[in-house]
Write a structure and sequence with these properties.
Chains A, B: It comes from Nonomuraea rosea. Chains A, B: Pfam families: LacI, Peripla_BP_1. 2 copies of one chain form a homodimer. The first copy, chain A, is an alpha/beta fold. In chain A, 45% of the residues lie in helices and 15% in strands. Chain A is elongated, with a radius of gyration of 26 Å. The termini of chain A are far apart. The interface between A and B is large, with 49 and 49 residues. Chain A binds a DNA duplex through helix 2 and helix 4.
Chain lengths: 305, 305
DNA sequence: GTGAAAGCGCTAACAC
DNA sequence: GTGTTAGCGCTTTCAC
């Protein structure tokens, strides 16, 4: 279909200018005459010139790819909305530049050594760490590489200088405040695991909202981001505090369990009890590690149906 | 932390051999003496040599990255288990070689032109197409690039020579056969959209199983892979065929709707009606396009609780 | 404002 | 089995 791509110097020849000029145009450097620029641009267009990235990054010594390192190779774990959103966001920025996105699944020893090779081969302009577990080896690898590091989501044990994460605390707080403004007063909460960042942060947001409204934050059951956990927690709450009129659940999946139980008990939602939850993207503790994976989440409000 | 990485020729000097020898060792080419190989390997180890990928792919003219092109920038759409599984699988293979995985979100015009640039810049060893919509421009771009193409999941309008996809038909059939072996006889099905590959294939599998067992395949409602759709479809089925004792639902999410309705009607699952569904990872029709996104799915059996 | 030329770090062909 | 060397296609000085 297409002929062999022309090289930069071929373009130069065809356009009747020097390689220097073509290069300047491509990198839109200053000191190029309007005329030369036009000629070159036309030639590029006409012959379908596409720069060779390898040559470019070899010559320029800087390069080229932002690495997305995922400390998990469990599809169920990294197939989640939060990561997808982060990736989508990163991609949007990447598109502006001519960087590219490199994906490295670095859960195994082998994957990790691959990652550190890649980071060291000066092929990476920066690295984003995703799905870190507590005490994750990737943290060290990334730091040791000398490449700029940013975390996607936080875990409890690191407080990264650069990160992107959902506002779990603020989101939880807003969700609750919505119910407060709707007139609810006897709140309870079902929290996520308190050794996960999202679990802690959402609980914090809940307590903040309670404190600000002068309401009691004493009705609380800690749970585990699973549906069964949510269901059990709801049963517990109902037993202890039969008079409650609102529940903030720290994740949708737990809320699903809670809603099932409420329905079974014949309690009308949202008439008798209003429910809000966070659309978590966290998973329950991962198999290999006794610790939980990091939380990565996003809050929303919903007067549950 | 680390000093500047040594280059290959520096390693050669330090090891007291020629660059050719070092290069041979690295690419474990033949004709290297045991002794030389040892010396070089030790030097590589000691000085922490990591090949410069840019230089390598420039010199060798072949390079280096497998492109994962996703025709969607909607996080909700590509955050799904099927893609994650595919990616995980691809990654496992990639790890063996020293290729790398490049991620390109190519839903917008801009993203697409970026993709075609990348494919043309001889930086790609192959490309995998994901989340294609019907009549997707990526198909042409990929084909026109001259790079080997493989599809992840199929859409209805292309029959790619190379693809990876779930066995939707076979999975559906197996799921139903399981219920047949459990003694069910009066089957119904709630299908997915019949303009999506997964919708069609699962329905086909269902009909196959019915045919082989000599059962009627006449109880069918077409639906849309949404929960509400599943619920409505279930209501419809119940009205038309109050005597049915098994339902195959083409996706989990529709099954959720169906189960809710069954519960409301006081119908015991699985006592009175058994339900199986496919753990689809498809989404309902995407916003920008009037057509549905491709299906990407995986079947499983479950006697629904 | 433009051109010429010296590399970037590696591979591959060729000579020994 | 090993060493030498000419590029790969670009960027980047340095002259002009």
């Amino acid at each position: 279909m297409t002929n062999r791509q022309p090289t930069l110097s071929e373009v130069a020849k065809l356009a009747g200018v020097s390689v220097g000029t073509v290069s300047r145009v491509i990198n839109n450097a200053p000191h190029v005459s309007r005329k030369a620029r036009d000629v070159v641009e036309r030639a590029i267009e006409e012959f379908g010139y596409v720069p060779n990235v390898a040559a470019r990054s070899l010559a320029s010594q800087r390069s080229g790819a932002v690495v997305l390192a995922i400390s998990s190779d469990d599809p169920a774990l990294f197939a989640n909305l939060f990561f997808a959103q982060v990736i989508s966001g990163v991609n949007a920025v990447i598109e502006e530049s001519d960087l590219e996105l490199m994906l490295v699944l670095a859960a195994s020893e082998r994957g990790r050594s691959r990652l550190s090779k890649i980071l060291q081969s000066r092929a990476a302009a920066g690295v984003m760490l995703l799905a870190l577990r507590e005490n994750d080896p990737l943290t060290k690898i990334a730091e040791g590489s000398g490449v700029p590091v940013v975390h996607g989501g936080r875990s409890l044990d690191v407080d990264p200088p650069w990160y992107v994460d959902a506002d779990n605390r603020g989101g939880a707080r807003q969700a609750v405040e919505y119910l407060i403004s709707a007139g609810r007063t006897r709140f309870a909460t079902i929290t996520g695991p308190q050794d996960m960042h999202a679990g802690v942060a959402r609980y914090l947001g809940y307590r903040e909202a309670m404190a600000l409204a002068g309401l009691s934050d004493q009705r609380v059951v800690h749970s585990d981001f699973t549906e069964d956990g949510g269901r059990a927690a709801m049963a517990h709450l109902l037993a202890e505090h039969p008079d409650l009129d609102a529940v903030m659940v720290a994740s949708d999946i737990m809320a699903a369990g809670a809603l099932v139980l409420l329905k079974e008990r014949g309690i009308d939602v949202p008439e008798q009890v209003a429910v809000v939850s966070a659309s978590t993207t966290s998973s329950p503790p991962s198999t290999p590690s006794p610790r939980s994976p990091p939380s990565a989440s996003r809050s929303r409000r919903s007067a549950a149906r």
